[in-house]
Design goal:
The chain is 76% helix and 2% strand. By secondary structure, it is mainly α. The protein has a domain of 206 residues. Helix 4 packs parallel to helix 6 and helix 9 packs across helix 10. The longest helix has 27 residues.
Amino acid sequence: MTMAVGSAAREPRRIHWADAGPFIALAVVVLAGMLLNDNFLSPTNIANVVTRSAFVAIIAVGATFVISSGGLDLSVGSMMAFVTGIMILTMNRLEPSMGANAILIGAGVGLVVGALCGLLNGLIVTVGKIEPFIATLGTMGIFRALITWMSDGGSIPIERALRDPYRPVYFGNLLGIPLPVVITLVVVLAGAFLLYRTRYGRRCMAAGSNPDVARFSGVSVARVRTTAFVIQGVCVAIAAICYIPRLGAATPTTGQLWELQVITAVVIGGTLLRGGKARIWGTVAGALILEVIANLMVLSNMVSEYLVAAVQGVIIILAMLAHRFIK
């Protein structure tokens, strides 16, 4: 018996290649970048790549909760545009009386609107009992139509008086680290804690793995999934807060096709599209992989940058095949 215990103690820990896959893929892509372009590893380019990936990474953290709980949200790109438009309109209205403080109020409004948009999606899915794909396909059209109507088909620019005080949120840094990257790290750490260290995280994956068993175990699957959609909405709002100073405006095309990037990042990060398994850090690696590939397409001129969406589509198909055949 002692020998058996000793043998078990000496048995090497198994390496889960499926979990390590996103990080290995990221390393391979970075290596390819080094070989294809000498400027790839320049501090400026690396900072640009990491900063640009922040928006998708933040939203993808929320999507990890939705997908792991057995849901899917196709509305995140349109929601991003809608929340951005609401924030800018709020800040512009308050700027004459509040000055730069309007930015804080606008950010708060954005968080509330994002949470409400997520709640709407969640209630349509859980209370309305509509498939997440159909429900969020509908709200995707609603949010996109609303931002088009709000902007009258043009753009909603932020007031000039707010541009300089808001600029550091995207272009500033903390101890040399771009501020959007710092915000992303905070969101990822909070998401990892919630998913891996709390009862809600365990219930989230239980609801995605087998909802019937979860219900018999006393888990309110509807509440868990609705909360996941709310988390998604909050993450969209946080991304919007970081995004606004980059371009200084909201347009009907803001966030277009981001739902593809977000779902791709989550899936290649190791989260099962059918639910029940989630990898927060893998999701971050997935977002970085997508941005590095897009960056290489621009730097190398090997493939037209207009084919970025096509490449992302191929990646998500390959990732789904990998999930199907690699255990």
